[in-house]
Amino acid sequence: MADSDPPADGPPAEAFAGLFRVTETDVDGGQLRYYGEPLVDGRRLERCLWPLFRDQGYEVRLTSESNSEKDPFTGIEIDRTRHVLVATPHSTGIDGIPWKNVVFALLTILSTLVAGARWYGTIDTVGDAFLDPMAVLAGWPFALAVLSILGVHELGHYALSRYHGVDASLPYFIPLPNVIGTMGAVISMRGRMPSRKTLFDIGVAGPLAGLIVACIVTLVGLGLPPVPTPAIPIEFNYPLLVQWLADLTGQPIEYPAGMSVNPVVFAGWVGMFVTFLNLIPVGQLDGGHLVRAMVGERQATVGALVPAALFGLAAYLYYVQQAAFNAVFLWVFWGVFTMAFAYAGPATPIYDDALDTKRVLLGFVTFGLGILCFTPVPFELAL
């Protein structure tokens, strides 16, 4: 449309005339676009317009875009920036069969079966899986344990997203032919966060749900018989939480040479390590969402300190502990990784009201549990 008439099915421009002066409207791929000038601060504008658009089935965001115009007197192209309210249809349902999610899940089942078979010693390398496919099935306890932890973690996020009416995808599992068989799982948050409460609830649900399953998996694995040490040149160090669970059950986690703890315990270790990494308080990680919800915009200060802390940990391990290179490299890598996350920042809620005390306390408990999943040198290459 070349005028200020409202797009079909969208709120009329007159409904927010005192907030945003509309000069042009358009419909682009289901999105409603209102071009014009904001008459109030951008944050206030979004807070005021959010309920108006949500009532009609849209999420609204203020943004800007470049537009080239030709000067009528000189004929020179001039780049101009104009503001636009973009209203996107709001939906939390599943549209058809999520084939991409299904395919990635099946591939991850296969890759974790192969990884599990290596830990159980029925195959030695990934290539052996092609020579003896039936031997791969022996890895099912490990595969089931890992996928349960990762799946429940992401489903925790998904369930609370649906509860709060935030659009999110089903989990995407990421297959990888490594010693775990996966790079984890993620969900795509397509909707805006209405409030700090919503941001906190969605952020905390994944780590807590996944950690509960990781503890259950670890307890089950401790009760299973040990296995011959697999031909995988990696030695794992256990966090306090695994050690406490072993003490609680009276089961050992260290065995004589030639024998190792059941791989299901290693699956629990994976879940705890993933929980710790997700709770690093920066950017789009779960920990970043929790801190943003708990302390508001002061999260930026916390996020800026995280890479420095990880680089400091790497330096301490290298110069003081003289740890193996792999441990040093791990935290240097995560230091660089979190720098990118800190730059991107966490999700910004529409309504930035403070959290209630119960949620703040739950946040501190969650970070405390994350610390119990931490070990400075998670694994060592036994070469």
What spatial form do the alpha-carbon principal axes imply? elongated
Number of strands: 10
Order of strands in the sheet with most strands: 1-2-4-3
Distance between the termini: 67 Å
Query: Helix proportion of residues, in percent?
Result: 40-55%
Report strand %: 15-25%
Characterise this structure.
The chain is elongated. The longest helix is centred in the middle third of the chain and has 27 residues. Strand 5 and strand 6 form a beta hairpin. It is built from twelve helices and ten strands. A four-stranded antiparallel β-sheet has the order 1-2-4-3. Strands 5-6 form a two-stranded antiparallel ribbon. Strands 7-9 form a two-stranded antiparallel sheet. Helix 2 packs antiparallel against helix 5, helix 6 crosses helix 7 and helix 10 runs antiparallel to helix 11. The N and C termini lie far apart (67 Å). With 383 residues, it is an alpha+beta fold.
In short:
This protein is an alpha+beta fold and 383 residues long.
Question: What is the element layout, followed by pairings?
Answer:
Blueprint: E1 20-28, E2 31-38, H1 42-54, E3 58-70, E4 77-89, H2 99-120, H3 128-131, H4 133-136, H5 140-163, E5 172-175, E6 182-186, H6 196-222, E7 227-228, E8 234-236, H7 240-249, E9 259-260, H8 263-278, H9 286-295, H10 299-319, H11 325-344, H12 357-372, E10 379-381
Antiparallel strand pairs: 1-2, 2-4, 3-4, 5-6, 7-9, 8-10
